[in-house]
Structure formats: C-alpha cells, structure tokens
User: Fold this.
Amino acid sequence: MILYFSGTGNSLWVAGRLSQALGQAKPVSVADELRRHAGDAVCEYALCQDEPLILVFPVHSWGPAEMMLRFVSRLSVRDYAGQKVYAVCTCGDTCGWTDRILGEALRKRHLPLTGCWSVRMPNNYILMKGFGVDPDDVREAKLAAAPAAVDAVAAAIRNGDTGVHLTVGTQPWLKSRLISPLFRRFLAGPDSRTKFHVSEACIGCGLCERVCPTGTVIMKDGRPEWGRGCVQCTACINRCPVRAIDWDSITQGQGRYHYPGL
Ligand SMILES: Cc1cc2nc3c(=O)[nH]c(=O)nc-3n(C[C@H](O)[C@H](O)[C@H](O)COP(=O)(O)O)c2cc1C
Assistant:
C-alpha cells in the first residue's frame, strides 16, 4: 500500500511511478484520509502478509512534511505482522535527519522503519527571502534524472533492501533538531497565520481552496481568504493558474513551480 502527501505534485508523481513499478494499487492521499477520519480518529489499514507499507512525501525544513507526521500519529496497521515499512521522500537538495524524525513517529505507532530513500526533485519553497524555485536548467536536469532514480528505489524495495539512503547534507542536527521543530511550531503549526494575499488577476476558479490540504483557504465572494493552520505546502501559490497569489512581497516577480502536467 502506498500512502502519499504532495503539495505541488513531485511526491504524487513519485508515488504513481513507484506504484506502477511495484504493481501496487493507486496511491492513497493522506490529506484525503485525514479528512475522511474526522477529529482524532485512528486511520487503520489492513495489509496482506507480504505487502509493504510505503510512505511518500516531501521534505519540509529537513523533516517530513507536517501532514505526513500528523497522519503517522494516527496510523494503525490492523494485526501488524512485521510487514516492511518504507519511506520515500522528495527534496530539493538535502533531507537532514528526515528518516530519524519519521522513524520516531512510526515507532510510537509500533511500526519500525525498514528503509528510507530520497529523490531529488525541483524545489517548490518560495516563501522566504533567499529561497526560490530552481533555475530552468537545474529544474530540467532534476526532472530528467528522476525516473531512473525512482526506478532504482523501486528495485531496491523489490529486493527487500533496508537502511537509510538519503542526501543528508551538512549540519543535520542543527537543521533537523533545532530549525525543523521551530518551523513546525511557528510557521506550519495549527495556529500558523499566513502572509498570502491575492491580486486583481484572480479569476475565482477556486483551485487554491481545492488543493489546500488543511482547509486554510476558503473562497468568499469568489476570492480566496486564508485562515489559520497553513502547513506551508505551497500548493495554493504554486498551482494558481494565473499567478494571482503572493506571500507578503517576497514572491512578487519570482518563479512558481508545480510538477509538469499536474
Ligand atoms: C515548507 C517547505 C520546506 C522545504 N524544505 C526543504 C528542505 O529542508 N530540504 C530540501 O531539499 N527541500 C525542501 N523543500 C523542497 C521540497 O521538499 C521539494 O520541492 C519537494 O519535492 C516538493 O514535493 P511536492 O511537490 O510533492 O510537494 C521544501 C519545500 C517546502 C514547501
């Protein structure tokens, strides 16, 4: 079973390609599952005897995307009998100790993490000064390299490989143990406020509301408004078809990214 979270389509594409390569059923969206299981209800799944559980998600601030951690905190495998649990994360560059943070969350649900891989994909983080989408040549090079990278992960999973195969990067303690929790607490927590605003270019299509995984974006009188609880997945701003959404003044005139054809 493949469960995924994706803001701008990279992880969705990886989940889809993995499911084809491994002959798995269509990947299941954890954002939909969290909505389906109201309140704090446990999200329980049954696995066949040799069926692996595969979690696919983006790295956000050198840790797993907040939505995946929320999902794992409510995850249960009915009659768990030692099936393998794999994680495949997508990142722009480096993951820090994403595997350790996810492994700790899984252990609380009595699920040991068998193996973890990262796949480099185009960057979608644009909400802070100094960050932005990749230059065109870098984006294209990442997209060109991605299919072989995902196929290699699928082959490793088929072989039953274990271990951590992430691009960790420098100073993982600082990034994953200090910066990541601060990001989660102040920028992507339940009370987080956003600096999103919309321009006159808005056509009122409502895509931003539909792709928001937390219900933070609500259409009012044909225009989006942002409430609390944004997890900074960047789906709304990166997927707006007319680039009408900005974050403060930081994103004005800057590029946008979502997986091609999403
Ligand atoms: C809030 C946020 C934080 C991010 N932090 C990192 C990071 O720490 N390291 C990294 O390499 N990429 C980081 N990225 C880039 C994403 O991991 C990458 O673009 C990913 O493939 C996006 O997946 P998606 O399209 O499935 O949402 C971040 C993106 C966002 C939105």
Remarks:
- The first strand starts at residue 2 and ends at 4.
